[in-house]
């Protein structure tokens, strides 16, 4: 067969230098290129396994070489899957996805490699390796060990059996939640049943009603639902459930919906209760096989948090600081409800409603009022100025140097203080519902790494979903979109300003995942720093920066109900940690008892005895957050504490801001995964992090 027929000739996914030629990549290139790379990699890996000398040069360097073509052949495919999807691309992606995942496992579970890594660690070469190289090898060893590679015979078989069963249970768990969420539908036909609902929700739910009718045979004879006259189908999907709870004036319907929400997948055929017990049992057994006392210890082995006690300390400090504020939040809602003629004590299904009324009465601004002050171009210019002041880098447009996947996509280069080109990034700013998924993210395009005697510079992809330019009106961002841009840019900075040359530890690679949100959340803090906000804002018609009065409201809104929100996250985090650490699944205490007793310490309004929300807690039973839910708070503590280094030095003093910024750049951003995050953090901050700044920023101290 010629290269022409196999699709390999001039296949843009098979280039191995420069930027990925995005303009040329078609769905038809995916399968042949990925299979080619997989075949080559398999050959090279087998060869390596048969010829292992336990040194860095003979093991790690060839591994990096095996991995490298995936950066060009597979990364762009996953990227385009998110930003330029099509039925053809999806089909091609799904065709090879399993093979790529399989190869990743093969890598991780290779016994010869594992023994070679162990031999490097025990051998003479070890002392001559750098701290970064030590960390890379140790991380690979730990990864393999947690996948059961160190186990023998019967133990090994049992471990694999458990892994298999756990993966089936987690799929089942998630399917049950999805099914029960989908099955529930409350059809409202009377106007007084939808009183209070915003127009957007009426549209959504009338549409949902129509969608639910198709397929029952007689939909052609039915008059379709309209936003004005209904019927309206209310569901338990978050985009419907949340606004309904916030706006519906019908207390009886809110109660009905709330009760349905907290009992999803908790009875009948789709009951997740037995799956929860089984999961906890299996995880405990798995932990013991690996030589750990609990599953929580397994989870923490790969994280920044040193141990369960440190996480519990953090929980306790945050909890005790939030209780008073949480009670005050409830009192405020109760008082407002009373003032407006409702004399019953508030129940769970009243909180979102009255909190929303309270928010309206205190901060009477809307997204639409803020938008005109945040045209994308102005925000970007201000952001680039800020990172120039903080980190000494210069960001400049270089659109002509890259080929892009859509004409709206921009390309920028970053130069350091000496004028050296150090990194680049793509920015895909606008929403394109037809082929781009929602949300925002930072993705690695190319990773900084040594290739022979040259260094490949890092390239990032920043993806947002802002409103596109329409006619004369430029792209105007909501404040939340501005924060999101800063957040993703923070991830991008850690990826791009790395000084590490080993791909496994450069940028965000190798960073423990409870520390990976540090730079991103750190950057968000600047959105509440007055001089920065004045710099990133400018009315698209008058050029006026954001009025002071609006800025003050934004700032005040940041701490609105912070105590309540904190306590809610703590309830989830503490329950997760307890269930994976102290809890004995064979005891008489049910998992719901556990949540209730933790609820007594973290909730101002006692949990309902029939609350079964654990049955839909997918983060920990069907996601990667088991004994890891605490990470959200852990990262917030870190990022707030990091920002407070600037506050302490004096935000109005340009010299110290610059000095502190350079230190952040040279530690957190430059060193990434090359050292333990606590060591890096201490080098930046001069001490370990504490909760003071987070509590202060949240108005809880
Ligand atoms: Zn993030």
Question: Could you walk me through the main structural features you see in this protein, from its secondary elements to its overall organization?
Answer:
Among the domains are: 2-150, Orthogonal Bundle (Neurolysin, domain 3), CATH 1.10.1370; 185-240, no CATH class. Helix 2 (27-50) packs parallel to helix 5 (87-108), helix 10 (238-247) crosses helix 15 (348-362) and helix 14 packs across helix 15. The protein is an alpha+beta fold and 701 residues long. The longest helix has 32 residues, at 308-339. 56% of the residues lie in helices and 7% in strands. The protein has helices at 3-6, 27-50, 56-73, 75-83, 87-108, 111-122, 131-146, 153-183, 199-213, 238-247, 251-262, 273-289, 295-301, 308-339, 348-362, 367-370, 376-391, 479-496, 518-524, 530-536, 548-558, 562-579, 591-602, 618-621, 631-649, 654-671, 677-685, 692-697, and strands spanning 186-188, 232-234, 394-397, 410-415, 421-430, 441-446, 449-451, 454-456, 459-466. Strands 3-4-5-9-6 form a five-stranded mixed beta sheet, with helices on both faces. A two-stranded antiparallel ribbon has the order 1-2. Bound molecules: zinc ion. Residues 487, 491, 517, 520 line the site of zinc ion.
Secondary-structure map:
Blueprint: H1 3-6, H2 27-50, H3 56-73, H4 75-83, H5 87-108, H6 111-122, H7 131-146, H8 153-183, E1 186-188, H9 199-213, E2 232-234, H10 238-247, H11 251-262, H12 273-289, H13 295-301, H14 308-339, H15 348-362, H16 367-370, H17 376-391, E3 394-397, E4 410-415, E5 421-430, E6 441-446, E7 449-451, E8 454-456, E9 459-466, H18 479-496, H19 518-524, H20 530-536, H21 548-558, H22 562-579, H23 591-602, H24 618-621, H25 631-649, H26 654-671, H27 677-685, H28 692-697
Helix pairs in contact: 2-3, 2-5, 6-7, 8-12, 10-15, 14-15, 14-22, 17-20, 18-19, 19-25, 22-23, 25-26, 26-27
């Amino acid at each position: 067969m010629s290269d022409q027929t196999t699709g390999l000739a001039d296949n843009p996914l098979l280039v191995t230098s420069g930027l990925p030629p995005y303009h040329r990549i078609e769905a038809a290139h995916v399968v042949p290129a990925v299979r080619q790379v997989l075949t080559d990699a398999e050959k090279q890996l087998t060869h390596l396994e048969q010829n292992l000398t336990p040194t860095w040069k003979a093991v790690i360097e060839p591994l990096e070489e095996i991995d490298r073509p995936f950066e060009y052949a597979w990364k762009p495919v996953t990227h385009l899957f998110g930003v330029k999807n099509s039925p053809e691309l999806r089909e091609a992606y799904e065709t090879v996805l399993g093979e790529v995942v399989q190869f990743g496992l093969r890598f991780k579970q290779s016994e010869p490699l594992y023994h070679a890594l162990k031999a490097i660690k025990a051998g003479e070469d070890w002392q001559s390796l750098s701290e970064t190289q030590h960390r890379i090898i140790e991380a690979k060893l730990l990864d393999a060990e947690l996948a059961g590679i160190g186990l023998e015979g019967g133990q090994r078989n049992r471990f694999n059996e458990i892994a298999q069963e756990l993966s089936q249970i987690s799929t089942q768990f998630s399917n049950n939640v999805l099914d029960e969420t989908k099955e529930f539908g409350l059809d409202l036909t009377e106007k007084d049943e939808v009183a209070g609902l915003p127009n957007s929700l009426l549209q959504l739910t009338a549409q949902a009603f129509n969608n639910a009718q198709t397929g029952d045979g007689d939909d052609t004879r039915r008059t379709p639902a309209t936003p004005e006259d209904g019927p309206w189908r209310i569901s338990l999907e978050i985009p419907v459930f949340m606004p309904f709870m916030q706006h519906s004036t019908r207390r009886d319907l809110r109660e009905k919906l709330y009760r349905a929400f907290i009992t999803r997948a908790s009875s009948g055929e789709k009951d997740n209760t037995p799956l929860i017990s089984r999961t906890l049992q299996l995880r405990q057994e798995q932990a013991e096989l690996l030589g750990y006392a609990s599953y929580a210890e397994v989870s923490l082995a790969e994280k920044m948090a040193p141990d369960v006690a440190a996480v519990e300390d953090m929980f306790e400090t945050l909890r005790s600081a939030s209780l008073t504020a949480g009670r005050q939040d409830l009192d405020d809602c109760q008082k407002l409800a009373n003032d407006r003629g409702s004399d019953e004590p508030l129940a769970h299904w009243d909180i979102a409603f009255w909190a929303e009324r309270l928010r309206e009465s205190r901060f009477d601004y809307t997204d639409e009022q803020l938008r005109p002050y945040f045209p994308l171009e102005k925000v970007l210019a201000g952001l680039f100025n800020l990172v120039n002041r903080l980190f000494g880098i210069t960001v400049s447009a270089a659109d002509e140097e890259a080929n892009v996947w859509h004409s709206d996509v921009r390309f920028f280069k970053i130069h350091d203080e000496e004028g050296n080109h150090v990194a680049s990034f793509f920015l895909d700013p606008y929403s394109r519902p037809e082929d781009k998924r929602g949300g925002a993210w930072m993705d690695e395009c190319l990773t900084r790494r040594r290739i022979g005697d040259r260094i490949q510079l890092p390239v990032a992809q920043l993806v947002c979903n802002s409103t596109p330019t329409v006619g004369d009106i430029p792209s105007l961002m909501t404040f939340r979109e501005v924060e999101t841009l800063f957040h993703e840019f923070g991830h991008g900075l850690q990826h791009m300003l790395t000084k590490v040359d080993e791909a496994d530890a450069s940028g965000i690679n190798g960073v423990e995942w409870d520390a990976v949100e540090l730079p991103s959340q750190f950057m968000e803090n600047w959105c509440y720093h007055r001089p920065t906000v004045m710099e990133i804002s400018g009315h698209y018609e008058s050029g006026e920066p954001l009025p002071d009065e609006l800025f003050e409201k934004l700032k005040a809104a940041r701490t609105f109900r912070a105590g309540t929100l904190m306590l809610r996250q703590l309830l989830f985090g503490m329950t997760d940690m307890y269930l994976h650490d102290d809890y004995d699944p064979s005891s008489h205490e049910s998992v719901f008892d556990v949540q209730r007793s933790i609820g007594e310490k973290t909730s101002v309004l006692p949990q309902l005895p029939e609350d079964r929300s654990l049955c839909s807690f997918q983060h920990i039973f069907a996601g990667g957050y088991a004994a890891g839910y605490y990470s959200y708070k852990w990262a917030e503590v870190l990022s707030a504490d990091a920002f407070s280094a600037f506050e302490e030095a004096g935000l109005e003093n340009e010299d110290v801001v610059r000095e502190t910024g350079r230190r952040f750049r040279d530690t957190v951003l430059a060193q990434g995964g090359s050292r333990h995050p606590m060591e890096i953090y201490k080098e930046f901050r001069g001490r370990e992090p504490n909760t003071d700044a987070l509590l202060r920023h949240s108005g809880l101290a």
